[in-house]
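Lecture notes, continued. The same structure-token format from the folding unit now serves as the input rather than the output. Read the line below as a description of shape only.
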């Protein structure tokens, strides 16, 4: 199992592969240790990349944090069409849709941390309609921009106001 910095290094090494200048999708998963007090929400808040997404199942058994977007969808219908076209069971779309499914912001995340029960993975997604080689280059730049160090809870910005 790996710390966040080691997991990011492993994902970066996956990008050493020679990718074709053709359309396609690639997914790289790296196991991630849960015993190093990693807080995915805290880590995301200290990243420069957007969009950012965090979700936790009510029971607490599943948790997901996502950074960046390989693909953005304005509606649930667009996201479903993309998933059908891809024909892959391992792609996940994150985001929000309004009360009207025709409106929303849904993403195919570039980087996803996911915990299911007692195990977690860090996932990097490549997707391009034209060139996986170009998207691998974009993914390298994305990973280079991340802050690998685990942020401390004391580094959280203070809340200025809250409205319900």
């Amino acid at each position: 199992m790996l710390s966040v910095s080691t997991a990011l290094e492993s994902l970066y090494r996956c990008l050493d592969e020679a990718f074709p200048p053709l359309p396609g999708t690639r997914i790289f998963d790296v196991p991630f240790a849960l015993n190093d007090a990693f807080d995915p929400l805290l880590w995301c808040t200290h990243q420069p990349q957007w969009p950012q997404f965090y979700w936790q199942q009510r029971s607490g058994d599943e948790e997901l944090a996502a950074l960046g977007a390989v693909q953005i969808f304005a509606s649930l219908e667009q996201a479903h069409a993309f998933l059908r076209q891809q024909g892959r069971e391992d792609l996940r779309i994150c985001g929000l849709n309004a009360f009207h499914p025709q409106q929303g912001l849904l993403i195919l995340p570039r980087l996803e941390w996911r915990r299911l029960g007692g195990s977690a993975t860090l996932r990097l997604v490549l997707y391009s309609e034209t060139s996986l080689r170009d998207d691998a280059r974009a993914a390298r730049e994305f990973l280079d921009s991340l802050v690998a160090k685990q942020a401390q809870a004391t580094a959280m910005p203070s809340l200025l106001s809250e409205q319900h």
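Point for the exam: The chain has one domain: 4-147.
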